[in-house]
Amino acid sequence: MRIPAHSVCTAIRDDIVAGIHERGGRLTEEVLARRYGVSRVPVREALRTLEAEGFVVTRRHAGACVAEPTEQEAADLLEMRLLLEPLGAARAAQRRTEAHLKVLRGLVRLGQERARLGNSDDLRALDGWFHETLAQACGSHALTSALTQLRHKIAWMYSVEGPVSPPETWVEHGAIVDAVARGDSDRARAVAALHTERATLAHRLRTPVGDRARHAQHPVNTAGLRN
Predict the structure, then answer these.
(1) I need a surface site. Which of 86, 109, 129, 218 has the fewest CB within 10 A?
(2) Residue 104: closest CA among 19, 33, 163, 175
(3) In DSSP terms, which residues pair with 58 in a beta bridge?
(4) Are strands 63-66 and 158-160 parallel, antiparallel or unpaired?
(5) Is residue 56 within a helix (H) or strand (E), and if so which, with residue range?
(6) Could you please report the per-residue DSSP string of 143-209?
């Protein structure tokens, strides 16, 4: 499948977050260009952008590689989100448009419906769209970009394994939207802070694929497992 040049950065980032490009792995322009069906020029530009975002590092004698954040750097991401998401909700209460509200309300209705049905795949996508729209509603390009990068990096570094209740999550989303709709920035900040704190407790640091492989117990003869 050919991906437009302007989407190369997004495609590489998504594959890094999904673990397709492993942490520490080399990112060769030629290989990436073939994978995404583009020339090496947009790949080179994408790698520069991803390096600025912290997903890629350039190493001497190795070139571009997927970054390998430390546990402390990963912990910092959650702390940053605790600070920025409530700020984003407060700003959204002041600057949101009617179009933002329409989308947010629609997402809450869908999310609450899917939560009752227990459709986890739909809920993950809807949760992402909700937070993306809320970030866009804050009316600040810098804050929206920071929140978007945080979500990508947290999804890359963490899995959600705690006792998250989807119905409760979407009730909290609805409360945030109600405060945003009323223009109550203090209420929006407070509800978003509680929501973010509760969600943070469910996050568990991911073990890089390479580390899992090194610590796994393999049978002596693994030929049959490769088929």
Answers:
(1) 218
(2) 175
(3) 64
(4) unpaired
(5) strand 56-59
(6) HHHHHHHHHHHHHHHEEE-S---HHHHHHHHHHHHHHHHHT-HHHHHHHHHHHHHHHHTTEEEPPPH
Residue 43 class from Cβ within 10 Å (0-12 exposed, 13-18 middle, 19+ buried)? buried
- 131 has pLDDT over 70: yes
Question: pLDDT per residue over 96-110, tens digit each?
Answer: 999 999 999 999 999
* The pLDDT value given to residue 5: 61
- Lowest mean pLDDT, pick from 70-74, 127-131, 160-164, 177-181: 160-164
Cα distances (Å, whole numbers) of residue 36 to 3, 9, 26, 197: 6, 10, 16, 38
Q: Can you read off the two tokens belonging to residue 207?
A: 């073990």
Report which of 52, 44, 46, 33 is spatially closest to residue 6, judged by C-alpha positions.
Answer: 46
CA distances from 77 to 146, 160, 172 (A): 11, 15, 22
Q: Tell me: pLDDT of 226 over 50.
A: no
Rounded-to-integer distance, Cα 208 and Cα 65, Å: 14
Give the position of tokens 């795949």.
Answer: 121
Average pLDDT, rounded, for the chain: 88
E strands of 60-128, at which residues? 63-66
pTM: 0.83
What 3-state DSSP class applies to 66?
strand
d(Cα 213, Cα 218) in Å, to the nearest integer? 9
